[in-house]
Amino acid sequence: MAPKALDYESLNENVKKVQYAVRGELYLRASELQKEGKKIIFTNVGNPHALGQKPLTFPRQVVALCQAPFLLDDPNVGLLFPADAIARAKHYLSMTSGGLGAYSDSRGIPGIRKEVAEFIGRRDEYPSDPELIFLTDGASKGVMQILNTIIRGEGDGVLVPVPQYPLYSAAISLFGGSLVPYYLEETANWGLDVNDLRHAVFQARSKGITVRAMVIINPGNPTGQCLSEANLREILHFCYQENLVLLGDEVYQQNIYQDERPFISARKVLMDMGPPISKEIQLVSFHTVSKGYWGECGQRGGYFEMTNIPPQTVDEIYKVASISLSPNVPAQIFMALMVNPPKPGDISYEQYIRESKGILESLRRRARIMTDGFNSCRNVVCNFTEGAMYSFPQIRLPPKAIDAAKKAGKVPDVFYCLKLLEATGISTVPGSGFGQKEGVFHLRTTILPAEEDMPAIMASFKKFNDEFMDEYDDHRGYSRM
Amino acid sequence: MAPPVSRDTLNPKVLQCEYAVRGEIVTIAQRLQDELKAKPGSQPFDEILYCNIGNPQSLSQQPITFFREVLALCDHPAILDKSETQGLFSADAIQRAWQILDQIPGRATGAYSHSQGIKGLRDAIAAGIEARDGFPANPNDIFLTDGASPAVHMMMQLLISSEKDGILCPIPQYPLYSASIALHGGSLVPYYLDEATGWGLEISELKKQLEDAKSKGITVRALVVINPGNPTGQVLAEDNQRAIVEFCKQEGLVLLADEVYQENVYVPQKKFHSFKKISRSMGYGEEDICLVSFQSVSKGYYGECGKRGGYMEVTGFSPEVREQIYKVASVNLCSNISGQILASLVMSPPKVGDESYESYSAEKNRILSSLARRAKTLEDAFNSLEGVTCNKAEGAMYLFPRIRLPQKAIKAAEAAKKAPDAFYCQRLLNATGVVVVPGSGFGQVPGTWHFRCTILPQEDKIPAIVSRLTEFHKSFMAEFHD
């Protein structure tokens, strides 16, 4: 029999190179343990509803009505659904070309893209063009589409922050490009120094790489830092000087837990800088319904907005989008509702505000609880979670622990995280999954477990950690390389 | 300084790929539609009829009530407890929603699921496959995806490392395959379906094309078979399917079985048999053949294109390879939950005895019998046109008539810098408002011309379409007769 086409050896090498730790070794081990009956707390992925966060009521009412439009004709529909949800369902259904079951325009329903543009206009105080907004099945698909359009081969480099959300490294691997890392400075609150950027680009170029794009994640994942306006200006100037397209992952823009640095979009800063720069820098901005206080991960709804991208390129991106026919229509409606929520005076407004505030304020409290909890542990140092959904404490592993990890054939932070999992059921993602400076170890956890469970979880972690450090510390202090 | 992202600096594979289903002619149609809206009466027709794309609900096909009831309840589970809900939803829809929600951790339909899809739903799909085929299916072989298309892309990504990797594709084919192969930098190895024998698939043709590719240094990795066919509509005979399975086994090819039209069969003498069933009935198991079967919620009698639901069932490969597929699926986390639920409903619909069975059955049969009638009416209409022959649509949703264009027309097309069939289709659009896709978008034997037209406009619109088409064709032939 001839060798088979799907034998491991004959697979696409780029696929084999891909790593995505968020659902990697730790997650698989945690799932195994769960099957064996152990109670697992999954903090490996930003998946709020899986940890008890409730969906907002209004969007679920609207989408349910859109799913079953025959309800709208039933005289008793008002017993179950408020009038504004009914009106919205009719509004969005009238925008579709046959309800939720028809392929829409490959870029998304025009009326919804218009509402997204209006949202951006209100947020940034500059008009946005619906023709340059494409809805996608989640922001991840949009990121992959854009990177696939840019990367021609391994000679093309993309600047990516380290630590980063590993969608970027995975996508660059899949498309055969080169990841050009720029390190965020942990001691400066995960700050970004433009000199580091310059250095990274210089090094890449000296290896013959053409650096094409720069990714920023703002607020950061896994690091949570919120970029200041000054920082964004620097970054934009840098992209202008080095001729890079800026890819702004802004999916956590609703998740802000401090007041010194509110969210400001890359586009607003760019527009504020005025011509010629505001008309020249190429920018693609990404957003989603999965994060914020909506947390509707399972819907797979997102969009990207293009700024200063030439029409021919937009056409090519449209062409590739059309091969997948259209993004899923229910998620498009979720997106519309997110950018155009109930307003003061609407029947559902009070409930909407109460639910949203409740979630955001709790997230803010949990960000603090977790940061403080980690900082109270031996050999653990944790920057405050300014935004997003994660805590990324540094675990200062003693040399004995690192040796034990080597002996067990595991990367040190994986070793630590596996032991944490076995002891406490807390499933995290080792820092090596996101990238970190050589010899410095972290883990990523989410701030999503229910507030009432937090004290117990942090106590459980502290107990494990302090016992671990007892076992492996030689009490001469740590050495941080 | 040249901007970083401009047409000359894009990924050349992106530049190379084409997808005619939503290509140039559709753009022109949309413009005409806008003009018509702005100035009613400005065109020789009242409305644009999109017959370019298999999008049933955009042409007024109604969704299956039971499915929508269950989906609505799963979208808004808060109402399941309320007494008013009993009055608005059927009892078995409520029951099914509870059953589905109980399989979802925390009943959280807004959470990312397992990257292959919710386990309980995969169990239901596996049971549905077994009921259909009479052979067991493993839920761990199922990967739920946002429609069948992303699953196809995943397989192409795995199989293709360079242009030396070839994928055998039928000509004519649904251009997702050519586009995906181009995007992933592989080589499309064409095998021609035989129009004279109802778009028959000859093993001798497969063998010939395989040898040809090998001699050019191409390693052929897989064979794509679309059954029922798109755009061609033929339903494969069982012995044909057995020969295909044997061929793949002997040559070590992955069989990529696009079976999204499995519920669309319109002729009593043919039945759909899945390639999984055929392989297993030949005694071939996991050790013998690598088979990937694609299914979707977009077609059939449910036509739920906008939901983006589908799956692939992957059998016959090693755990290491399965790991890689899982890994790629995990980067996107999971497919949309509502689409996953719908896929499980499609594979396990109401049964005899269920409260909704009668109405579900009536809806299903109404749609399928209407599709069969429309397929026949349009087939006859095309065959009545001068110089046009049209094979029967045994299944799927399309007709693919062959038009014999006079030399004058071909010259006029050349002058207009258009492929002759694109020229014809654009004239057709301008005269009648009907949007069809030129055959060159699907591939055809060189020197032959076709177009693909869906059978989806509602039955009451069909007479008008037929008369407008007939009138246009007559005047076109009169204008360009040699």
UniProtKB/TrEMBL annotation, chain A:
PANTHER family: ALANINE AMINOTRANSFERASE, GLUTAMATE--GLYOXYLATE AMINOTRANSFERASE 2. Keywords: Aminotransferase, Pyridoxal phosphate, Transferase. The keyword Transferase applies. Residues 87-450 form the Aminotransferase class I/classII large domain. Pathway: Photosynthesis; C4 acid pathway. Belongs to the class-I pyridoxal-phosphate-dependent aminotransferase family. Alanine aminotransferase subfamily. Its cofactor is pyridoxal 5'-phosphate. InterPro entries: ALAT1/2-like (IPR045088), Aminotransferase_I/II_large (IPR004839), PyrdxlP-dep_Trfase (IPR015424), PyrdxlP-dep_Trfase_major (IPR015421), PyrdxlP-dep_Trfase_small (IPR015422). This is Aminotransferase class I/classII large domain-containing protein. The keyword Transferase applies. Pfam families: Aminotran_1_2. Homodimer.
UniProtKB/TrEMBL annotation, chain B:
This is Aminotransferase class I/classII large domain-containing protein. Keywords: Aminotransferase, Pyridoxal phosphate, Transferase. PANTHER family: ALANINE AMINOTRANSFERASE (PTHR11751), ALANINE TRANSAMINASE (PTHR11751:SF29). Pathway: Photosynthesis; C4 acid pathway. Its cofactor is pyridoxal 5'-phosphate. It comes from Hevea brasiliensis (Para rubber tree). Belongs to the class-I pyridoxal-phosphate-dependent aminotransferase family. Alanine aminotransferase subfamily. Pfam families: Aminotran_1_2. CDD domains: AAT_like (cd00609).
